[in-house]
């Protein structure tokens, strides 16, 4: 009885925002939550369903990944609302272009993260992060440090990536993490490490190459 | 191409720079151009993406704002109306390496809403000299007006298309309404052609303000389940004319 009332209320809300597709989608969502709990999400199949117009499939991707995708965008953009704007746009793009996903360029999950990362990096290039960085109050000096440290510590202890990162000389490791995790440009890396631009470029390149060889 | 022994290394490094966003515009463009017919470039991009993916998937998740999903859902376009494939493919290439600016969506949304109101108002004035009971402007996911529905009584509606709706072969448009949540969606009929049509549905209670109307794309003959299954072409809530 209670469950039915809750479902009806959810459905009412859903109709306001979605439309009549709310009818019949609730079971799919329950299933997807269960699959998620089992850690068995078939990202490729969900993308195929999105391409076929199944909104519940997009919702499943959202339920499974949105929290992490916002976090990834926020590491680059720092501000939560900018990160959510990027994830918003990325999900629209994923919906529209799900049919163009190409497995020969990486896993479906990697594609989803690529869409978000690229949009976040693009927003940085549009100057969104610079605005923030002018203000020392909003961007404490050590925030970058804690972001990249946390990113490594979150990796599983047995992770190969973690092992390889930890084997890199500290300055190369920092270059790699600043470029991937916080989306820094060569110039920003040089500024942060207090080294000439040419040196930054060379350290980044050597760091990336060493990592690649370690993981090969 | 060249048989330079460093060729593969260069390719991997280039792919990595593209993935991290550190490639120059020229490098990214050249790399992108190679992807179409260079399997080694594709493999390098795939390897570079997978190499770093764990840094993303291990990120400490945050709880997104409550309204984020609703905002996303409001912005979804109808897959049945996807633009021609070449435009699509061009967009895909852009997406891979040089994503479009995320700005503009909400600006577009706001502009489209204004257009919807203006267009709806003008059309209504010319088409219905006598006062209609309730009017619905059906908007697509980008808030572009696709149709007006006039609720004539509990059984009949008049549908006037405002946009050229492309219906894939073997499909038909089906008009729905939601008289109340307990009843669920009710079909008002099928649209065989995109012209002004009066449809007679099953006898229903008098339509109410804010009653939902929706058009979906369904298999010929109508939805096999009796409920909407296909992509939404447009939807809107009934309003009483203020005259």
Give the SSE map:
The complex is a heterodimer of chains A (216) and B (243).
Chain A: H1 2-17, H2 26-37, H3 43-51, H4 55-77, H5 80-97, H6 108-125, H7 128-133, H8 143-153, H9 160-167, H10 170-180, H11 186-193, H12 197-215
Chain B: H1 7-20, H2 25-35, H3 39-57, H4 68-74, H5 85-97, H6 105-127, E1 134-139, E2 145-151, E3 156-161, E4 171-178, E5 186-191, E6 197-200, E7 212-219, E8 232-237
Antiparallel strand pairs in B: 1-2, 2-3, 3-6, 4-5, 4-7, 7-8
Helix pairs in contact in B: 1-3
The poorly predicted ranges of chain A are: 23-38, 131-139
* Distance from first to last alpha carbon of chain B: 73 Å
* Most extensive contact: A-B, 78 and 78 residues
Order of helices and strands of chain A: HHHHHHHHHHHH
Strands of chain B, count: 8
How many strands of chain A? Answer: 0
What summary fits the major beta sheet of chain B?
4 strands, antiparallel
Kindly state the mean pLDDT of chain B as a whole number?
75
What is the percent of helical residues of chain A? over 70%
Count, helices of chain A: 12
Task: Summarize the structure in words.
The complex is a heterodimer of chains A (216) and B (243). In chain A, 74% of the residues lie in helices and 0% in strands. Chain A has helices at residues 2-17, 26-37, 43-51, 55-77, 80-97, 108-125, 128-133, 143-153, 160-167, 170-180, 186-193, 197-215. With 216 residues, chain A is mainly alpha-helical. Chain B has 243 residues and is an alpha+beta fold. In chain B, strand 1 and strand 2 form a beta hairpin. In chain B, helix 1 packs across helix 3 (39-57). The N and C termini of chain B lie far apart (73 Å). At the A-B interface, helix 1, helix 4, helix 5, helix 6 and helix 10 of A face helix 1, helix 3, helix 4, helix 5 and strand 7 of B.
């Amino acid at each position: 009885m209670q469950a039915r009332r809750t479902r009806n209320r959810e459905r009412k809300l859903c109709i306001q925002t979605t439309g009549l597709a709310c009818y019949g989608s609730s079971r799919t969502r329950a299933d997807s939550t269960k699959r998620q709990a089992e850690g068995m999400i078939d990202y490729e199949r969900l993308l195929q369903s999105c391409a076929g117009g199944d909104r519940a499939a997009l919702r499943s991707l959202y339920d499974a990944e949105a929290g992490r995708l916002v976090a990834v965008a926020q590491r680059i953009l720092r501000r939560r609302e900018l990160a959510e704007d990027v994830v918003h746009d990325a999900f629209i793009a994923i919906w529209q272009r799900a049919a163009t996903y190409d497995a020969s360029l990486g896993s479906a999950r990697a594609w989803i993260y690529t869409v978000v990362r690229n949009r976040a990096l693009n927003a940085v290039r549009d100057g969104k992060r610079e605005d923030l960085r002018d203000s020392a109050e909003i961007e404490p000096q050590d925030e970058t440090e804690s972001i990249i440290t946390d990113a490594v510590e979150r990796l599983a202890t047995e992770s190969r990536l973690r092992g390889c990162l930890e084997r890199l000389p500290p300055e190369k490791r920092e270059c790699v993490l600043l470029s991937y995790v916080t989306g820094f440009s060569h110039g920003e890396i040089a500024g942060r490490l207090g080294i000439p631009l040419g040196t930054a470029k060379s350290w980044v390149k050597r760091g990336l190459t060493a990592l690649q060889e370690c993981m090969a | 191409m060249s048989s330079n022994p460093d060729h593969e290394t260069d390719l991997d490094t280039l792919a990595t720079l593209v993935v991290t966003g550190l490639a120059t515009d020229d490098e990214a463009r050249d790399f992108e151009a190679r992807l179409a017919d260079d399997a080694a470039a594709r493999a390098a991009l795939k390897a570079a993406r997978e190499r770093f993916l764990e840094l993303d998937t291990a990120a400490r998740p945050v709880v997104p704002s409550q309204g984020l999903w609703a905002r996303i859902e409001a912005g979804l376009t109808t897959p049945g109306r996807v633009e021609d494939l070449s435009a699509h493919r061009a967009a895909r290439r852009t997406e891979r390496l040089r994503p479009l600016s995320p700005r503009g969506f909400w600006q577009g949304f706001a502009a489209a809403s204004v257009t919807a109101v203006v267009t709806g108002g003008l059309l209504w004035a010319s088409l219905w000299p006598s006062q209609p009971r309730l009017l619905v402007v059906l908007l697509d996911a980008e808030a572009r007006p696709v149709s007006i529905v006039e609720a004539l009584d509990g059984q009949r509606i008049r549908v006037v298309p405002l946009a050229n709706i492309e219906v894939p072969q073997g499909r038909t448009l089906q008009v729905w309404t939601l008289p109340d949540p307990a009843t669920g969606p009710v079909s008002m009929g099928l649209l065989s052609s995109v012209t002004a049509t009066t449809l007679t549905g099953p006898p229903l209670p008098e339509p109410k303000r804010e009653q939902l109307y929706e058009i979906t794309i369904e298999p010929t003959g109508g939805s096999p389940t009796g409920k909407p299954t296909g992509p939404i072409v447009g939807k809107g809530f009934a309003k009483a004319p203020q005259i």
